[in-house]
Design a protein that fits this description.
Apple domain-containing protein; alpha+beta; signal; 21% strand; four-stranded antiparallel beta sheet; 8 strands; 4 helices
């Protein structure tokens, strides 16, 4: 009986070790793929020239990019890569409002209000006819874009390339040219 008990405990330890080894080996390809994806993302962010404007923060396991508190919104430079804040003249953005309509004029003051709001603000929609500013949150899935006949404009934190997959092709075409 004693021999059987020792043999059984030895067998269980051996089985547990093999199970742990399999779990570790199964995790490595996923970790390698994740590392490769993060490395590519870092490279892409560097290539579009916004590394100096963005800093990475991690909150509750969700990666979020935000403007550094010391940064301002630079103007886009036509001769170089598309950098700065993404400006879309003649467009409206509806959805994920952080506040109601704020009586903030001009559009540059609306952008500064977003900057003071912090990481929760992804950009602004400035309604020129009403002279109102709408701060926008980070839930891009609830955003709706539409063309405007007035002097309205949308400004999103970061460079044009950062938002190219979210905005429409027509919006991307006019980004930083206004």
């Amino acid at each position: 009986m004693r021999f059987t008990l020792h043999f059984l405990s030895f067998f269980l330890v051996l089985l547990a070790g093999e199970t742990i080894a399999r779990a570790t080996n199964a995790r490595q390809p996923r970790d390698a793929a994740l590392s490769a994806l993060l490395a590519k993302r870092q490279t892409n962010r560097h290539e579009i020239g916004i590394r100096s404007y963005l800093k990475k923060t991690v909150k509750r396991g969700v990666e979020d990019e935000q403007l550094d508190a010391r940064s301002t919104y630079p103007k886009c430079k036509m001769a170089s890569a598309r950098t700065g804040y993404a400006h879309y003249p003649g467009w409206k953005l509806v959805g994920d409002e952080l506040s109601g309509a704020l009586p903030v004029k001009p559009e540059s003051a609306c952008i500064q209000a977003c900057n003071k709001y912090g990481a929760a603000c992804s950009g602004v929609f400035f309604d020129s006819a009403k002279g109102k500013c709408y701060l926008k949150g980070t839930r891009t899935s609830s955003w709706t874009f539409s063309e405007s006949v007035s002097e309205d404009g949308v400004d999103l934190v970061g460079g044009c390339a950062l938002w190219a997959n979210i905005v429409t092709e027509e919006m991307d075409a006019v980004c930083c040219r206004g």
